[in-house]
Each structure stands twice: as C-alpha cells, then as structure tokens.
Amino acid sequence: MTYQIDSINLAINKKQITPTLIELDLEFINTYCHYYLNREFPEPRPPIHFDLDHALSLTIKDLSLPVLLAHVGKQQGLVRLEDSEENNYVIIDGNHRLLAARRLNQPLKAYVLIENMLVAYEIEEG
C-alpha cells in the first residue's frame, strides 16, 4: 500500500489525526537498518528503495521530523514494537532519516499510526 505522506504529516500538524509519538532507540535503528536497508544483506530482503546519497546528506537537524510507522495488520509488516510479539508495522516515511540516525548515532521519534487513521490517505495501486 502507498500513502499520501505530505497529507498525513499535515493532518498530524493540524491535529486532525493524533498518532502516538514514540522514540526509536539505537538498538531498533541499527537492527532495522541492518536487515532492511543494507544493500549488501543477502536476498530475500524487502524491496525498500532509498537514495543513499540523500541519506548521507542529512544532519541532526533533519532528524527532528518523526518517522511514520503504519499498522498494516497482524503479521503483515516488517516491524515489531515492544508491546507486540508480531510484525504488524511498516515504515511508510523515514528510511533516509533512519539511515542518518544510525550514522549520527542518534535516537529518532516516530508516529505510530493505526489502520483507521490511514484509510483516507491510501493511494490505490494499479
């Protein structure tokens, strides 16, 4: 599924949707980057596309915008949060910031969006 990221961020800023704000610690960031954003990691790995040059250009200031984590259903995601034993989430915005946070050794904030918050922002693929 693809989402209207700018519209989601605008809705958060206008408080039209109120996702939970969490902190992604360095352990989470390092693990995620190792398994999902490491282009040298053997296949199969999910097809997550990112511009490495852009990620390398980011600074600590760029890390102020939280990552967007979307709940996509039971065992349908790549990411597991501390309160769950299942991978129910995907990162829909912030892979560049995750790589920069790893490089800069900085934690990062993330908004956790549940499914009903995302329906209005889904882009039909096809």
Task: Report, as a whole number of angstroms, the end-to-end distance.
Answer: 10 Å
Q: What is the CATH third-level topology name? A: Conserved hypothetical protein from pyrococcus furiosus pfu- 392566-001, ParB domain
Helix and strand sequence? EHEHHEEHEHE
How many individual domains? 1
Anisotropy-based shape: globular
Largest beta sheet, briefly? Answer: 4 strands, mixed
Mean pLDDT: 85
How many helices? 5
Radius of gyration: 14 Å
SS class:
alpha+beta
Strand line-up across the major sheet: 2-5-3-4
Query: What is the tally of beta strands?
Result: 6
Strand content: 15-25%
Regions with pLDDT < 50 over 5+ consecutive residues?
A: none
CATH top level assignment: Alpha Beta
Corresponding CATH architecture: Alpha-Beta Complex
Helical coverage, percent range: 25-40%
Q: Could you give a short description of this structure?
A:
This protein has 126 residues and is α+β, with helices and mostly antiparallel strands.
What does this structure look like?
This protein has helices at residues 5-13, 26-36, 52-57, 95-104, 115-118; strands at residues 2-3, 20-24, 67-71, 89-93, 108-113, 122-123. With 126 residues, it is of the alpha+beta class. It has a single domain, classed as Conserved hypothetical protein from pyrococcus furiosus pfu- 392566-001, ParB domain, CATH 3.90.1530. A 4-stranded mixed β-sheet has the order 2-5-3-4. Strands 1-6 form a two-stranded antiparallel ribbon. Helix 2 (26-36) crosses helix 4 (95-104). The chain is globular, with a radius of gyration of 14 Å. 27% of the residues are buried.
